[in-house]
Design a protein that fits this description.
Oligomer: single chain
Helix content: 25-40%
Bound molecules: zinc ion
Distance between the termini: 41 Å
Number of strands: 18
Radius of gyration: 22 Å
Number of helices: 14
Structural class: alpha/beta
Shape: globular
Largest sheet: 8 strands, mixed
Length: 445
């Protein structure tokens, strides 16, 4: 009886998952006659055959592989098979909705909006995102449970900030903060949490770890979208940053910080932070420090391309300061051979969210297509391993090799020759697979 009940439950789950348009992992999928971009090399492989089974790339061969019984066979006709893309600086919950809507605080509606955006993200070929701020835990769970289509999410939970720091969106009437009093809207949503001492930092970090954070995000300096923090401000003390690094380290994971300026970068590095997010105003000394310590730079191509979301004049002025630093930051990153990962940091704009792939292509103004693609595949995957035992998706991401997780795109063309293919995922990506499950397949029509 119990077994029958379980079977019924399973059947109901499958039906509802199918009704929601969520892919089910096939027994096995055989890609015939594809050329592989493996996430690292500067050229494609020769004609190859790739067998996926159990969500893993089981075998890659230059000679045909006999299809296992019940395998889905995909005739690639010489198309490119590449790793799914990784956005290392994404805000699952806040990419699309305008700031005003977020501040209304309807977490249920925001989560449903984010679910729709998660599906769109996957359909743009992004099979993994590192979420660096926002209450994405529920959505991540629903995606992992197969209820909603979306990318793998490495959640940070709330970004942790100080009073007046980047991520503190309070209005003056909400001050002074009463210790033990109700949280401001950012805290109630778990979008950002305030911490003004090493003890408070430890508390906030541990709360995010309890919720399932795979890494911790602090804002070590001022930012653009926040109403109060000037860019030059260094926010947390080294002691506070160190408290976060220690609490995260006790949980086996690491801290990444939002930091633009040399001061914020140097203080974070001294405290043991593993990833600098942004870094656009770094100087020679801070670039050298990042290189010497082997720290990652998670970089965004912030340039004045006319797509900035509507923000108040003070934010726009700060954004122009960042734009002015981008070119020099790239020059320093190249000179010091920094470990570079790439991310978009799209916020508050459904229109900009659709440009996720275009923001990868923008890196081509400084880097070759092979370098750009590696940043969003193998390098991105390597950064994600910093989560250690808190990695929610153990296994290799960002590469096409035997034993890696089967997150794959079949591309109509060669992105190493024509990077712009990434900008038109609807047309270019004829098949999208995550964890061995096919979410899009234009070839089966
Ligand atoms: Zn961000």
């Amino acid at each position: 009886m119990l077994q029958l009940h379980r079977r019924l439950l399973a059947a109901t789950w499958l039906l509802s998952a199918c009704a929601a348009g969520v892919a089910q992992p096939a027994e096995a999928t055989l890609f015939q006659n594809v050329r592989i971009y493996d996430g690292k090399a500067a050229s494609l492989s020769g004609p190859s055959h790739v067998l996926v089974r159990g969500g893993i790339i089981e075998r890659i061969s230059a000679t045909p592989i006999a299809p296992p019984a019940s395998a889905t066979v995909v005739d690639g006709q010489g198309r490119t098979l590449m790793p799914g893309l990784i956005d290392n600086h994404w805000h699952t919950m806040f990419a699309a909705p305008p700031l005003g809507l977020i501040l209304q605080g309807d977490l249920g509606y925001l989560t449903l909006l984010a679910a729709a955006e998660a599906r769109a993200t996957l359909m743009r070929g992004f099979t993994t995102v590192r979420d660096v701020g926002g209450p994405s835990f529920a959505l991540k769970r629903a995606i992992d449970d197969g209820l909603v289509a979306g990318p793998r999410i490495y959640p940070s939970g709330a970004m942790i900030t100080i009073t007046g720091g980047h991520g503190d969106f309070r209005a003056p009437h909400e001050l002074p903060r009463q210790l033990g009093g109700p949280p401001p809207i950012g805290g109630a949503l778990n979008a950002s949490q305030l911490a003004d001492s090493p003890d408070e930092v430890r508390l906030r970090v541990r709360e995010q770890l309890l919720l399932g954070a795979s890494q911790i995000k602090l804002t070590a300096g001022g930012g653009v979208a926040s109403p109060h923090s000037p860019l030059d401000a260094s926010t947390f003390t080294e002691e506070e940053l160190r408290a976060a690094v220690q609490a995260a380290g006790n949980w086996g994971t690491y801290v990444g910080v939002h930091a633009y300026t040399p001061e914020a970068i140097q203080r974070a590095v001294a405290a043991g932070v593993k990833v600098i997010e942004h870094g656009h105003l770094m100087d020679e000394a801070s670039a050298k420090l990042i290189a010497d310590k082997g720290i990652w730079l998670s970089f965004q191509p912030f340039v004045d391309d006319g797509f900035a979301p509507q923000m108040p004049p003070s934010s726009m002025a700060r954004l122009r300061q960042i734009f002015a630093g981008t070119e020099a930051a790239v020059t320093l990153a190249k000179k010091h051979k920094l470990k570079l990962a790439w991310g978009t940091d799209v916020l508050f704009s459904a229109a900009n969210a659709t440009r996720q792939g275009a923001l990868l292509v923008q890196m081509n103004q400084w880097f070759t297509p092979a370098e750009v693609l590696a940043m969003a595949t193998s390098a991105g995957g390597e950064l994600l391993t910093l989560s250690g035992p808190r990695n929610p998706y153990p296994g290799k991401l960002g590469v096409v090799e035997e034993g890696a997780l089967a997150d794959l795109l079949l591309v109509d063309g060669n992105p190493l020759e024509n990077l712009k293919l990434i900008e038109t995922p609807d047309k270019s990506f004829v098949l999208i697979m995550k964890g061995g499950a096919i979410y899009k397949n234009l070839l089966s029509r």
